[in-house]
Amino acid sequence: VQLQASGGGSVQTGGSLRLSCAASGRTFGSYNMAWFRQAPGKEREFVSAIHWSGGRTYYADSVKGRFTIARDNAKNTGYLQMNNLKPEDTAVYYCAATKGHYYTLDSGMDYWGKGTLVTVSS
What we know:
This protein is mainly beta. Helices cover 0% and strands 48% of the residues. It contains no helices and eleven strands. The chain has strands spanning 3-6, 9-12, 17-23, 32-38, 45-50, 57-59, 67-72, 77-82, 91-98, 111-112, 116-121. The strands form two sheets. Strands 2, 4, 5, 6, 9, 10 and 11 form a seven-stranded mixed β-sheet that branches. The protein has a four-stranded antiparallel β-sheet with strand order 1-3-8-7, with no helix packed on it. A hairpin with a 6-residue loop joins strand 4 (32-38) and strand 5.
């Protein structure tokens, strides 16, 4: 499966953005999906993940209560709604997919999209 993230941009503190992850192929609905991010000078970190069914979601503590992950398998698209953005959310955001069980770990992901940059200014 090929993934393409979009929706990044520049916002001020407290603003919102919605990232999208468009997947090619007909089997997106069978893949668990996750979002990761990498800030300048830092390692890539887990942000959020969603089971292929949409029935289970996971969040990093740093984004819990502010970000919401979702997916629309009919549209082969995943989403990350980001509210109340903070400067520390500034990073390149990547979507990734796997049929495996360890989809909150970047080592557990099989497919990666190119990132989309999110910049939050104070």
